[in-house]
Batch of 4 targets.
Target 1
Amino acid sequence: MAGLPWGIYTGPIDGIYPAYQDATGQSQNLLGRIALRPRTTWFGSWISDDAAERTAQRYIENVTGGNPDVLAQIAIFRIDPWEFAACHHPPTPDQQASYYNWINAFAAGIGSSRVALVLQPDLPFALCAPHRGQLALSLVKYAAQRFGALPHTTVYIDVGAADWPTVTQAVYLLRAAGVSYVRGFALNATHYDSNASELEYGAQVSAALAKRGIRGRHFVINTAENGVSWKYWQYHGPHDNPRVCRTRQDWPCMTLGVQPTWHVTNRRWGLPPDARRIASKLCDAFLWIGRPWLYAGANPFEVEQALALARSTPFP
């Protein structure tokens, strides 16, 4: 990803760019802090198997403008059922077949395009599934192999955050999900932990993988909503849609973090020296994987929430 131009999505999927276009004055300036930055767009089972290939093509065309050297960013959230539903209902044979068809079609749509791909956000939900999620993890492994074989797609398997699975659990998940076929793993996609904490955790996971024979694995960190950082147990409210910070001194709350960048060691980000050293060796990028301008990070777009995020961020 380093050195490539990162494209910006200008379509309607996440709502932010159309809102930016329609706004004026200070509202447009604030919305531009989100709309004019590279963002990761999520794709999953709400897109039919038949539409998956064309959906990938259209999205990449929008982001890159047809320039093969521009990077697009994608999150694949395709296991069905997932999250808490996965704890009790593993994918049926029909759902498994649909998964394979969808992944094959979406991979065909990506083709030789340059893509940074985050695979299966919230992967640690597999730990609550029957048989430690072996079935679901085998499906993710297939996707890791399929996307990892594309010529210009860099894959990071999501493995939660430092305040979720232990390092041992993270290694189990990543090995079962096919991390040996991809560049590495993604952190903090749906959490609000600090970059310094995630860097330390990522280094531990990478080292633990190396001890199991999977060496050289790098990672990316989601910074879309951790401008004010906190651990999951420190917030007493809805974790998927916490309140937005009212000021830059407010806590605990949610606001935009470090803008998407591969310049992870920039002193502007306020990382302590140890964290910067880890970042220089192992962290490929800070990405906006999360979507805090959407209700519960999913749907629908919330313009007032987007404005509040842009007002309160310490990283304008």
Target 2
Amino acid sequence: MDMKHRKLRIAWSVAWGIVAVLLLVYIILHPWLTRQPRRAPAQVHPQSGPLTDWTPPAFRYIAIALDFSAHDEKLLAYALSQGGKDCDYLLIHVVESASAQILGKESDDYETRRDQERLDLYRATLEKKGYRSRTGLGFRHRSREIARIVKEQKADMLVIGAHGHRGLQDFIHGETVDAVRHALKIPVLIVNL
């Protein structure tokens, strides 16, 4: 039985040796047997002509997502610099009270009334400076409401603030900017606050 096992081992070793040699021959000969004509090197960037159209876009209706913090002035300044006095502005805020979460537009709680008053104050301040503006109050989901109001009002551009949260903070405070940016097909100016 020992001799039988020894012959069997030798047979397997020879078989595996033949397979290894055939594989080595295939690896060596394959590139020459399947040679294809040389291709032109791939371009990293497609060819483009000279840049000729330097006309900046003229925005006629810019939406501004406000959170009633100290950063609102910065957001308004960026928006006004984009549109000037020939543009209309849409001031947006989303109410986040418990009543607004449940009742939506039907909400008539203290926070909803105060938020609308604040938007009206912002609008009046802009109008005193010669800017045309409207207000839009949203309810429940911040990112969905901002996107909905911007689409319904057909704004040309949105100015929104980013607080720079990362990781767990982003999860806790939400990813409003990314959700809004992906929901819209207009330019979105993200202002780091």
Target 3
Amino acid sequence: MYGIPIKIRRASDKKAKWELISDHSGEFAQRVPPGEQDYIIVADIKTPKGQPKPQATVHIDSDERQDVSLHLTQEELSAR
């Protein structure tokens, strides 16, 4: 889905370090510093009251590439 705000933060942080927008293919890319770290990726969309925003946790061991998918339901997108 095009134009979805994406926020990425280290799992140990409270605020997002990177903010992106998904492209026309619904994709985004962000390079993070090499080294062992966990990251939280959040689709920053409005959700029904009391429901969490779609998110994924990614563990990076070194400097490898990691592909991640967030699958949004039509219900989540309708609330947007």
Target 4
Amino acid sequence: MKLMNKETLKEYARKLNDYYLEARSMPSYSQMLKIFRLKSKNAVFKRVSRMVSAGLIDKDAGGRLLPRAFRKPVRLLGMVKAGFPSPAEEETHDLMDLDEFLISNPQATYLLKVDGDSMVDAGIHPGDLVLIQKDLAPRNGDIVVACVDNEWTLKYFEKQKGKVFLRAANKKYPVIEPRQELTIAGVVIANVRKYK
């Protein structure tokens, strides 16, 4: 069988994308027979395996298929100044896939919905989604998801003279110093807020 190139695999991934966006779930192997217009589940399995290897789709620990970059790319029209007003020139520069822009390691990245106002001065508000990468080592000033003495929280990471502190971005919250246990579950790499 002729080896499939990356573009062919991307075309299969686009078909899965279209199915996922409509059904809000991944198709079964039987459904993929029709989607890919193939005659055997073995052929489907080979294509799925190659898409997983190419990073176009993911699998969980149980072998279930997971969407990865399943959204339509958005047009990048140019730049707009956030300072003083100036004429904005609309010029299509490129297509931008938000997953590729935000996520460098899909297997180590997950989303959490924010509950509470302890990070509002960092621009993170209740209802926002934060993108967490769990394989990054936290540095001073990073915002982290941490389990402190059996309670989960989102705070600034600070290390001074070998001691770790967690600091809120809201003056009404005290600095947290772990008494017994501290587990850092990941570093915030992006904050997502939907206005409408």
